Amino acid sequence: MSSTPIYTSIIVILILMSCSPKTAEQSMSKQVNSSTKSSSKVESLLAQMTLDEKIGQMNQYNGFFDVTGPAPEGGDNKKKYDQIKAGEVGSMLNVRGAKEVRRMQELAVENSRLGIPMIFAFDVIHGLKTTFPIPLAEAASWDMDYIEQAAAVAAQEAAAAGLNWTFAPMVDISRDARWGRVMEGAGEDPYLGSRVAVARVKGFQGEDLAADHTVLACTKHFAAYGFAESGKDYNTADIGLSTLYNVVLPPFKATVDAGVGSFMNSFNELNGVPATADEFLQQDILKDAWGFDGVMVSDWGSIREMIDHGHAADGEHAAELAANAGCHMDMESALYTKHLKALVEQGKVPLSIIDDSARRVLEAKEKLGLFEDPYRYCDEAREKERTYTGAHLKVAHEVAKRSIVLLKNDADVLPLKKSGQKIAVIGQLADSKNSPLGNWRLASDDNSASSVVEALQARAGNEINYSQGVMLYSGQEFFVMDININEEDASGMDEAVSLAESSDVVIMVLGEHGMQTGEGRSRADIDLPGMQQELLERVHAANPNVVLVLMNGRPLAIEWADQHIPAIVEAWHLGTKSGDAIADVLYGDYNPSGKLPMTFPRHVGQVPIYYNHKNTGRPGPSDAVFWSHYTDVSNEPLYPFGHGLSYASFDYRDLSVSVDSVGRKLDVSVSVKNSSDVDGEEVIQLYIRDHVAKVTRPVKELKAFEKVMITAGESKTIDFNLTEADLSYYDNRGHLVFEPGAFSVFVGGSSQTVLEQKVEVE
Ligand code: BGC
C-alpha cells in the first residue's frame, strides 16, 4: 500500500508575491490574464449583455418571498422581483425544491431579455434531507471513501431539489474549540483537512457538473476565518505568514487542484484587510499563483460589513474594493447592483473586472448545463425518488458508525453484554431526535434522527430504562433559535440517581445541543453545559459502572470524566442515523475506528492546543520555573489529535525508513498486528519532524495515513512513500522549500506515536 499525499503530490507552483497595494489597472490586467478562454456561447452572451446585465450576474439574493404565491407588491422585495425579471440577479440562495426552483427560474428565463438562468445555491453542509454527521465528526472517520460518498449523496438530493451549488466544503483549519464553527470543518490539521476537503469536492462535483446528481462545490471561507481571535466568531484573525502558508492555505489549494468550481471569501480581516477585499488572497494567491478560474462569492453581507470593519467609507466604496480585489459575486449586500455601474463609469472599477466576473458566473452556468435546459434540475418526480432513500440512509448509517471515536474503555466496560443486563439511559440528549441532527441542517425534517433511547430499546436482550435526569435545554429547537440551557432546575436528578443505583450499567448521554455549535455559537467555557457535570458526578457516585456518550460539536474539556468514568464514547452530532450508529458501537456490532481530528484539552485555558505546535526555546520539562508551561495545568492534552481506541488492540513494530537521497524520497514500512480476538480497523498515521530549518518546523506533522482492516491475530505490513514535497515546507514568501538534514519519521495510532526513526536526507 502506498500513500499519495494530496496537497504535496501536486505540481508545486511557486507563489511569488508582493504585498504592495495594487492599482485598479494592475488588478484589471491580472483579471484579464487569469480568465480562461470561454465557449462561444458565453462569449456571444457577453457580447450582447448591457453593463447592468453583466453586473446582474454578480448579484446573489436570498429567497425572499413565497414563490408559489403572488409577487410582493412593494418594498425591497418588489425591487428584487423586478430585478430578476430584468436579468439583474445571477443567483439565488435558499430557494429549494424542484417546484419552487422552477417557479423562480421561470421569472428569470421567461422574462429577462436574454433569458439567462439563475444558479440556485444552498448550504448543503452535511446532507440535504438525509443528514450525515456534522463535518467535524465525518473527519473523525478518516475514511475518505465514505466522506466522498456522503457528499455524493448530499449532491444527489440537492440536485434533485433543483439546487446547483452548495456552499461547502468549509475547509477552515481551527485550533480553537471555543469557535462554534469547528463543527463545520475537518479540525486542526492541514494534511487531514486537505484530504477531507478533496474528498468532499469530488463527492459534490463528481465527474460532470451537468449530470443530474452533481452540484458545484464552494471552498470556504478564504481565508483564516478559523483563526478568529479568542475563538469568537467573526473576530479578527492575526496570524503569521508561516501559519498562513503551511496551515491555513493548504486545504484551499488542494481543492483548487481538485477542480473546485467556486470559492467564498470570509467575514474576518487578516492583517488589517477584510478578506472580502483582500487582493493578496484573492488575486495574488488564488488566481495568479494557483490559477483558480472559478467564481468567488462574498460571504453573506460581507461586502457591506467592510464599513463596520473600518475599511470602506460607505456602500459604494465597499463595492469598489470588493470588485477590484476579485470578489465576483455579492451575496446579499445588494451593493454591486447599486453601485458598480457608476463605479465603472467613473473609471474606479475597470470594465474588464465586470467582464471577467460575469464570464466566470456564466461559465459556471454553462458547466452546470443550465443553458441547455434551465429546468434540468426541476423534476418533481425525480426529487421524490431520490430523496431520503433507503440507499442514502444506509450510507448515513455507515458514515455515522465510522465517525464515532472511543476515547476511553477501561476494564473493557464496552462492548455491552447483549442480554441479561438492566441498563439505565440518562440525559435529555439520549432521547432527543432533533439535537443529533446538529447545526446547518436547514432541510432536514425536525425530529428525524434516531435517538439513543429508541435504538437501544429496539434491541431485545437487555432491559432499557430511561430517565432524563436534569434538563439540559428547553425551547423549540428550530434552526434559527437559540435554545435555553438549564442552569438551575435540578428536578429529575434524584430519579436518575435511583435508576442508576438499581441498574447494572448506566449510559449517560451528555454534551451540547446541536444548536450550541455552529455559526455565531462560540463558547468561552467548553465544559459540559448546564447542570450535566453535577448529574454525572451524582450518578457516578450511585453506580460507577458508567458509559459516557458525548454528543457535541467541538472538543470538550472533560477532565473529571476522564479521571472517573471508565468508558467514554465521542458521538458528536451524527445525523439521521445517530442512535442506530451509537447502539452499534455500544453493543460491539461495529468496532469503533474513528480518530480525533482535533485535540481535546484538559482545560479551556490550554486553548489553542494542537499537536503540531513548535518546540520553543524552552520545551522542558524541567524542575525550574522557567520553561514553557502552565503552573496550574499540564501541557498535555486530555486526548491528543489522532487518538481513538478500538475493541481490538494493535501493536506497532518493525518501523523501517530507507532514504533514496537522489530522489529525496523516503520509503517507510511498518508492521501492525491485531493482537486481540476481534477484527478491527486502524488508522495508521505517519508524522515527520524536520529537525532544523530556516523557518522552524513543528514537533510533528501528519504526512500520510491509511485506514486498514486487520482481522483478529493478523499482522499487516503498511508501506508509505514520502516525496520531496512531503519533506518540504512553505517559507515566509510562500515558496515551497526543501532543506537537507535530519528528519524523524514517526508511526503509530495517534499523534502520540510509538515508533520513531531518525534519518538524514541530503
Ligand atoms: C456563512 C456562510 C454561508 C452563508 C449562506 C454565512 O453566514 O458564513 O458559510 O454559506 O451564510 O448561508
Q: How does this model look, in words?
A:
With 762 residues, the chain is an alpha/beta fold. Among the domains are: 403-606, Rossmann fold, CATH 3.40.50.1700; 650-761, Immunoglobulin-like (Sandwich). Helices cover 30% and strands 18% of the residues. The strands form 8 sheets. The protein has a 6-stranded mixed sheet. A 5-stranded parallel sheet has the order 4-3-2-1-10. The structure holds beta-D-glucopyranose.
Topology:
Layout: H1 6-9, H2 24-34, H3 40-48, H4 51-57, E1 59-62, H5 75-85, E2 91-93, H6 98-111, E3 119-122, H7 135-140, H8 144-160, E4 165-166, H9 190-205, E5 218-222, H10 241-257, E6 262-265, E7 269-270, E8 273-274, H11 279-289, E9 295-297, H12 305-309, H13 315-325, E10 330-331, H14 336-345, H15 351-367, H16 380-386, H17 390-403, E11 405-409, E12 422-426, H18 452-457, E13 463-467, E14 473-474, E15 484-485, H19 493-501, E16 505-511, H20 532-542, E17 546-551, H21 559-564, E18 567-570, H22 578-586, E19 650-660, E20 665-674, E21 680-690, E22 701-710, E23 715-722, E24 729-730, E25 736-737, E26 741-748, E27 755-761
Parallel strand pairs: 1-2, 1-10, 2-3, 3-4, 5-6, 6-9, 12-13, 12-16, 16-17, 17-18
Antiparallel strand pairs: 7-8, 11-18, 14-15, 19-20, 20-23, 21-22, 21-26, 24-25, 26-27
Beta-D-glucopyranose (BGC) is lined by residues 93, 123, 167, 220, 299-300, 519.
How would you briefly describe this protein structure?
It contains 22 helices and 27 strands.
